[in-house]
């Protein structure tokens, strides 16, 4: 089987605003054969998709504690190796930016490595590395997170460093100026050099009519170019405080000791009066949109459709998010799943066909479909087949047996998720910054187990409405776009 | 200031030792595997390497296509029923072609262990290569090759390999080229599987919820029916072309540059000094000189790096940078300047000490999953590092001294003789005549 793993080159667009986490910095992966920096953020972004499956009760079993200044502490024990993953998640992301300042959440993430009165610019990562650790950070629409992976006996050091920059960031004008150039290069690498990414950015902008999820995390080029030191510091002062943060520690640790260390280093930090996370609301969707991007650089065309969908937090009917997770698994969970079997195997029209859904968003999220044609197959034919498959799904629905198979696989994913301590930290941090609780994460297998085919079919019919969708066509320049 | 003193104190603490027991398990039939037991989770991961990767193939892309088809129907199961069994039991089973070997990966819950190994056996010994999956996988590989053409990073890597290795098989992409992939015949796929999937040079690494007693008979059941040997590997040592710049014009806002030179093989006695040197030069992320000069000080790029890639018949040192077209010349000049500085004077004592601390202390970080450890067990065997390598590795790095690093830098870094490929519209840089 061919597995598409590189999300950059993949025609599976990265599932909308949520999983498209920007890794602001880059680290090298010290393995026996050194790898390029490039691969790391691709791997992390892919992880963001695959760990959309949280845990069951008795899986991560985190110990939690809220400090008196509001900092939430979450500890997961994993004693496989004497290592620890130390993460601080802030409940702020690109969707919390003010109009005209797109990109500031991510730019600030870069600038968080530019020093405090105690730690000179650029020293943060070097201190971590000198202690055998790796550090990085990433920004998404709903959150910004910083992490260090390091020997467990260095936890105190990284806590001290991370607590320091939570309140004490100082920025020199020249560091801001040069880092803005770095972020502009990052945008060129990720987006401007890649027509598929350019289309994805525009599809999201078209899908959300008013909600800031329409905004690219890295920022629109014109606005990005105008970001200043003052913008960054304003954003920092508004949002970076212990009562807007979650500390997640996973690894070879004793929870009581972690909490005591957190009291020592994070405990003294002053909380802030936080503004509410009020985002512009999304009006009712009332009309299908289509965007065609024809570019001479495109060699392999693709078809994408995004629908606005309820998230775990935004859903009024709380069975809907898990119904959609089961639906995505039925449609796209492997080589015998509906889309792959129909489009790729039986009809032989597509090289790839996917569906995806990520419940982890503070506001609405997306349910997506994508496909790319086999050599010699026209886009018209591919499009028609994908639309027919969606229509069939809505008309006849999926069976109890399909639901049962999907649920079995999702249940097994929980066991695999426990294998890596980074997965635990990531899943919990994402959940807590997108309006969910630890109990929600731990209860996930029970909610999945309770889903019926009727619920999946009713939810599919409620969510997959053309009027709440945008369709994207990525075409070589020569090819005419046809409806 | 007190805070900084505390930091300084922490820096001097020794890094903890990490003990993992690697056991050698030999089956009654004489098949060997290296095992790390871990019974914390009901998961087993296996990584397997077979000798003979793309370098031995008769048609570019053959091994890659064969690897993609091994799990597409075997024994009594056609493609859909084979994949259906994997999905219903949540078994991860896949094969992957490299230049020098073919890898197989298996991941299963303990409950489904016997079925998982049985499916792995069928894939190796009775792959079907039915018409439908063969044409489907061919179409997917062709679509992937087409997609690579729109990615400047892929284009740059391909051109660099082509220019660097010339007539050597390493010049060819593992996934082939459209005309060769179109021409691959089912009989060739079958013949290659039958000839090259053998017990000679078979390497097995297993991690997780399994005991040696449980593993030994499984090894015979899974691999025992494979042929005892494969044909001789007739791949020559590669010579790497240097001293050339190739510009591939593309209308894109950012140029992607790949640069490289002859590197070093894993069994070279100078490997660790070279590895430490490269960490300081361009392997060490935010601690590397290239990142400091190109990104941090001047904001020229988001990503700039170098790495050592050791293969069976060549070693290369490769690096890269992506920057707006107007800054390509400045960035490459800076990179050359840094290579020269390292070759001339080596690193500082502090840089060397910091590199050694990082490279020893960070080692366990890569091993955070069963699959990652299984992969390491295969690398340890294929590179002949010894079963006690995990215990010795950090001492080998700690023993690297300044003279050795300087020697490695002089040997590997020739700033005026790089092979450079640029994809984009770079200003002020043209192809060598």
TrEMBL record, chain B:
Domain Peptidase M16 C-terminal: 186-358
UniProt keyword terms in alphabetical order: Signal
Signal peptide positions (record): 1-19
Pfam families registered for this protein in UniProt: Peptidase_M16_C (PF05193)
SUPFAM superfamilies tied to this protein: LuxS/MPP-like metallohydrolase
Keyword Ubl conjugation in record: no
The protein's name in its UniProt record: Insulinase family protein
Source organism (scientific name): Magnetospirillum sulfuroxidans
């Amino acid at each position: 089987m061919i597995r598409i793993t590189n999300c950059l080159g993949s025609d599976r667009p990265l599932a909308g605003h949520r999983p498209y986490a920007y890794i602001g910095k880059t680290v090298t992966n010290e393995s026996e054969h050194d790898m390029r920096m490039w691969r790391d953020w691709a791997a992390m972004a892919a992880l963001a998709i695959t760990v959309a499956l949280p845990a069951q009760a008795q899986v991560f079993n985190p110990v939690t504690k809220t400090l008196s200044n509001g900092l939430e502490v979450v500890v997961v024990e994993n004693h496989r190796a004497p290592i620890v993953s130390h993460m601080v998640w802030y409940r702020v992301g690109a969707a919390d930016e003010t109009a005209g300042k797109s990109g500031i959440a991510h730019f600030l993430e870069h600038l968080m490595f530019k020093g405090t009165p105690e730690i000179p610019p650029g020293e943060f990562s070097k201190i971590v590395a000198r202690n055998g650790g790796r550090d990085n950070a990433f920004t998404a629409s709903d959150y910004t997170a910083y992490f260090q992976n390091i020997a467990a006996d260095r936890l105190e050091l990284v806590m001290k460093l991370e607590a320091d920059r939570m309140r004490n960031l100082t920025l020199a004008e020249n560091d801001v100026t040069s880092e803005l150039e770095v972020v502009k290069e990052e945008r060129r690498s990720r987006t401007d050099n890649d027509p598929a990414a350019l289309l994805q950015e525009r599809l999201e902008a078209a899908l959300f009519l008013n909600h800031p999820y329409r905004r690219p995390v890295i920022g629109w080029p014109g606005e990005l170019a105008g970001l200043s030191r003052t913008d960054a510091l304003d954003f920092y002062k508004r949002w970076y405080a212990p009562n807007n943060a979650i500390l997640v520690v996973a690894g070879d640790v004793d929870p009581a000791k972690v909490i005591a260390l957190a009291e020592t280093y994070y405990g003294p930090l002053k909380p802030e009066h936080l503004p509410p996370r009020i985002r512009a609301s999304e009006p009712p969707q009332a009309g299908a949109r289509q965007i065609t991007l024809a570019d001479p650089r495109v060699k392999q065309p693709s078809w994408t459709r995004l629908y606005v969908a309820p998230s775990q937090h935004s859903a009024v009917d709380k069975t809907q998010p898990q119904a959609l997770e089961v639906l995505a698994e039925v449609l796209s969970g492997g080589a015998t799943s509906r889309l792959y079997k129909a489009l790729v195997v039986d009809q032989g029209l597509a090289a790839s066909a996917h569906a995806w859904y990520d419940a982890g968003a503070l506001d609405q999220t997306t349910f997506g479909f994508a496909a790319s044609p086999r050599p010699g197959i026209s886009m018209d034919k591919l499009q028609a087949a994908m639309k027919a498959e969606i229509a069939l799904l809505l008309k006849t629905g999926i069976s109890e047996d399909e639901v049962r198979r999907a649920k079995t696989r999702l249940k097994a994913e929980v066991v695999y998720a426990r294998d890596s301590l980074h997965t635990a930290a990531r899943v919990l941090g994402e959940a807590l910054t997108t309006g969910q609780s630890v109990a929600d994460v731990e209860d996930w297998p029970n909610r999945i187990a309770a889903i019926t085919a009727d619920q999946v079919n009713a939810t599919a019919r409620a969510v997959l409405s053309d009027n709440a969708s945008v369709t994207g066509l990525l075409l070589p320049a020569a090819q005419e776009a046809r409806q | 200031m007190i805070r900084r003193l505390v930091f300084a104190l922490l820096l001097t603490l020794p890094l903890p030792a990490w003990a993992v027991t690697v056991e050698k398990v030999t089956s009654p039939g004489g098949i060997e595997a290296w095992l790390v037991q871990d019974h914390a989770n009901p998961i087993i991961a296996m990584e397997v390497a077979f000798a003979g990767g793309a370098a031995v193939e008769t048609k570019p892309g053959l091994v890659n296509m064969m690897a993609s088809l091994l799990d597409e129907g075997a024994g009594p199961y056609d493609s859909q029923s084979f994949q259906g069994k994997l999905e219903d039991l949540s078994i991860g089973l896949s094969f992957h072609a490299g230049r020098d070997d073919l890898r197989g990966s298996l991941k299963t819950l303990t409950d489904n262990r016997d079925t998982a190994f049985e499916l792995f056996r069928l894939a190796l010994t009775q792959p079907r290569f039915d018409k439908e999956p063969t044409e489907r996988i061919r179409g997917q590989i062709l679509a992937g090759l087409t997609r690579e053409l729109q990615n400047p990073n892929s284009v740059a890597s391909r051109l660099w390999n082509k220019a660097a290795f010339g007539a050597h098989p390493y010049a060819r992409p593992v996934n082939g080229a459209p005309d060769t992939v179109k021409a691959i015949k089912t009989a060739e796929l079958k013949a290659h599987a039958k000839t090259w999937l053998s017990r000679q040079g078979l390497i097995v690494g297993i991690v997780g919820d399994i005991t040696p007693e449980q593993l030994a008979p499984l090894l015979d059941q899974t691999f025992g029916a494979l042929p005892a040997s494969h044909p001789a590997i007739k791949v020559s040592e590669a010579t790497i072309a240097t001293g050339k710049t190739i510009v591939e014009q593309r209308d894109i806002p950012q140029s992607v540059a790949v640069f490289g030179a002859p590197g070093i093989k894993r069994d070279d006695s100078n490997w660790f000094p070279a590895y430490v040197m490269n960490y300081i030069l361009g392997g060490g992320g935010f601690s590397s000189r290239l990142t400091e000069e190109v990104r941090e000080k001047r904001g020229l790029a988001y990503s700039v790096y170098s790495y050592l890639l050791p293969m069976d018949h060549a070693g290369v040192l490769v690096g890269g940078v992506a920057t707006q077209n107007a800054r390509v010349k400045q960035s490459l000049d800076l990179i050359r300047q840094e290579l020269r500085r390292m070759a001339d004077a080596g690193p500082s004592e502090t840089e060397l000490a910091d590199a050694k601390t990082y490279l020893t202390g960070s080692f366990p970080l890569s091993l955070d999953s069963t699959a990652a450890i299984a992969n390491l067990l295969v690398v340890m065997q294929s590179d002949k590092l010894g079963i006690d390598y995990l215990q010795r590795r950090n001492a080998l790095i700690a023993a690297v001294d300044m003279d050795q690093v300087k020697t490695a830098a002089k040997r590997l870094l020739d700033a005026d003789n790089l092979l450079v490929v640029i994809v984009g519209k770079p200003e002020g840089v043209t192809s060598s005549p």
